[in-house]
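User: Please fill in residues for this 263-position structure.
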């Protein structure tokens, strides 16, 4: 072993938001029991790309006697990092340092005097962040909420997306074709059902075949959760028209999420 730079994570400061997991392209960091952990020293290059993404300042780079950086370890851990995620606690609502983009925020309804948010067609968004990799499942805005899970393209296609679909719901967005580490999505959706005790889950997808992966993720999470939740699937045409809206029946007793492929 030789002395080199390596990432260290202060578990006492870590709130389990998971932002560093997606920031680490080498897959050296994972969430384990709600805390970020360096799961492979040999997969960590010590450059500290994750450093500026930690909202709690829990990550530092230190020089230590550790195993050398191994590029072959990167592939192994990058491919398995998502499977290490567990249910995470809600972060402090206003605690962030160097990464405002990961700050958890809830918004009040706009009023006429709110400038841009009081416009003729105001945004119905009531939270930040919205991307499924970034949202903490137990954020306050998810507790007991009606949740709208949409494919990335949906809001661009549907003209009345905010007024008709987003209003009154908490939002999460994802792309079942392009997003990596979708095992993380499965864990987070299951946690939304069990830990956040959401009231309902509406999955809104485009009519293209790849969007079916998002529906299967929701079905798998529901099948693997300890409690049940009302699930509805809305399919949008590529020209923005709603092609169908259907409530999905509860899975039969004993059926596990392993029975439902993610893709």
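Assistant: Residues filled in for all 263 positions:
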């Amino acid at each position: 072993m030789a002395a080199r730079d390596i990432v260290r994570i202060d578990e006492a400061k870590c709130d389990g938001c998971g932002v560093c997991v997606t920031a680490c392209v080498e897959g050296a960091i994972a969430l384990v029991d709600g805390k970020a952990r360096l799961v492979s020293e040999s997969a960590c290059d010590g450059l500290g790309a994750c450093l500026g993404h930690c909202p709690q300042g829990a990550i530092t780079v230190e020089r230590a006697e550790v195993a050398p950086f191994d590029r072959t370890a990167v592939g192994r851990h990058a491919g398995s990092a998502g499977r290490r995620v567990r249910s995470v606690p809600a972060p402090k609502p206003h605690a962030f340092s160097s990464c405002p983009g990961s700050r958890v925020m809830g918004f009040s309804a706009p009023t006429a005097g709110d400038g841009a948010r009081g416009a003729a067609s105001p945004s119905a968004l009531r939270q930040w962040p919205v991307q499924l990799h970034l949202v903490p499942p137990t954020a306050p805005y998810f507790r007991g909420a009606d949740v709208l899970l949409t494919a990335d393209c949906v809001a661009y296609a549907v003209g009345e997306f905010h007024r008709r679909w987003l209003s009154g719901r908490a939002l999460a967005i994802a792309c079942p074709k392009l997003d990596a580490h979708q095992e993380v999505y499965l864990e987070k959706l299951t946690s939304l059902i069990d830990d956040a005790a959401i009231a309902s889950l509406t999955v809104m997808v485009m009519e293209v075949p790849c969007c079916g992966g998002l529906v299967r993720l929701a079905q798998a999470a529901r099948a693997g959760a300890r409690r049940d939740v009302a699930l509805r699937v809305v399919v949008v045409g590529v020209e923005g028209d709603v092609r169908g809206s259907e409530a999905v029946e509860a899975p039969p007793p004993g059926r596990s999420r392993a029975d439902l492929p993610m893709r």
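For context: The CA atoms of residues 220 and 258 lie 7 Å apart.
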